[in-house]
Write a sequence for this structure.
């Protein structure tokens, strides 16, 4: 998959999986973009916290995250 400089992300998935995902998200009252962005944020936050656990713990003592 190429990485361009635009803000777009394009992936191909099976049509049935796409329908199932959209249906489940609709039931939860969420659209694909907001679900994706929430999950990206959580993923990156988890990675940054695990990359430097001692530093993050020390920072956490001084301020709330």
């Amino acid at each position: 998959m190429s990485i361009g400089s635009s803000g777009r992300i394009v992936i191909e998935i099976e049509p049935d999986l796409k329908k199932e995902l959209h249906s489940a998200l609709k039931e939860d009252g969420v659209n694909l973009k907001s679900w994706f962005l929430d999950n990206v944020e959580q993923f990156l936050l988890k990675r940054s916290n695990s990359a430097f656990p001692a530093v993050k713990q020390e920072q956490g003592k001084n301020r709330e995250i």
